[in-house]
Specification:
alpha+beta; about 290 residues; 6 helices; six-stranded antiparallel sheet
């Protein structure tokens, strides 16, 4: 993660837990899983993976083929980095923009920079806005403090949000809809009587719990089909970083931003590069021993 001349190595950890129950479709006659095949609409024949290409349907029934080289050319230059380019008031971002949370875990020797950014964001009431590449896609994201953590909140782009004005909504205020003072007073009293503290742990997915009980009963009755489970791959460890003079980097970043002086950009990635090179050599030697 970087802003100005500061670089803070972090690991991107999931900030949500999927608890949906996933179902497979089976043939009711012999309980075998149904396989989906790639069928050519014109010939009715199955198409092997090597013959499949990506295409964009620009008109009904009209396609333009997109080559892998085209996708690579459009891919972001920076890989798996969080580049913060501005800071905005946290309250200025509408709830409709937030999509998915991640937790940023500091890499080795990155705790000082992590805490510095976290505490300054808390004091200022701001969040960092930038772009992040996850796998092969670039996202808009906000870096926000929460307790001892820095969260990376994936944001929706403006073009992904539908303007409420596009729908038929009741315009006008209380007078237009002839809402009486008594109705307002009663509504306020009702809301006040139902008000309390936000306690997310008190809300449970009751439907999922009931459905889970049904599944357990079916398992006990031995009406089951066993399948394989896979483990999620772990994120790689970050390389160690040099000890950084944050005050100096902040000072230089401010000077560069304000045009007061031409900041000389230091390379803070020499140690990680050497470490990566050393690791690559070890891996090559290990493969050579195995092949021998």
């Amino acid at each position: 993660m970087s802003f100005g001349l500061l670089n803070i190595p972090v690991k991107l950890m999931t900030g949500e837990r999927r608890v949906d129950l996933h179902f497979r479709m089976l043939d009711s006659r012999n309980k075998s899983p149904i396989r989906y095949e790639r069928i050519n609409e014109e010939t009715g024949e199955e198409v092997p993976w090597k013959e499949i290409v990506k295409a964009f349907e620009y008109d009904k029934g009209s396609y333009v083929v997109i080559e892998e080289a085209d996708i690579a050319a459009a891919s972001p230059d920076h890989k798996e980095t969080v580049d913060i380019d501005t800071f905005v008031d946290a309250a200025s971002i509408g709830a409709e923009f937030y999509e998915k949370p991640y937790v940023l875990e500091p890499g080795k020797k990155a705790e000082k920079g992590y805490v510095l950014l976290r505490e300054v964001l808390k004091r200022s009431g701001k969040v960092g806005i930038g772009r992040v590449v996850i796998r092969t896609r670039e996202y808009l994201a906000a870096v926000a403090p929460q307790g001892d953590a820095l969260l990376l909140l994936i944001l929706r782009y403006a073009q992904e949000i539908i303007d409420p004005a596009d729908y038929k909504l009741p315009e006008g205020g209380l007078a237009k809809w002839k809402i009486s003072p008594r109705e307002i007073d009663m509504a306020e009293q009702l809301i006040d009587s139902m008000s309390g503290q936000w306690k997310p742990e008190s809300y449970k997915d009751d439907f999922r719990a009931r459905l889970h009980k049904v599944i357990e009963q079916r398992v006990k009755s031995k009406k089951v089909v066993h399948g394989k489970q896979t483990e999620e791959s772990k994120l790689p460890e970050n390389a160690a970083t040099n000890v950084i003079d944050f005050a100096e980097l902040l000072k230089r970043s401010l000077a560069k931003k304000g045009g007061q002086a031409a900041a000389v950009k230091k390379t803070t990635r020499k140690a990680p590069a050497k470490a990566a090179k050393k690791t690559a050599k070890k891996a090559a030697k290990k493969r050579a021993r195995k092949s021998a």
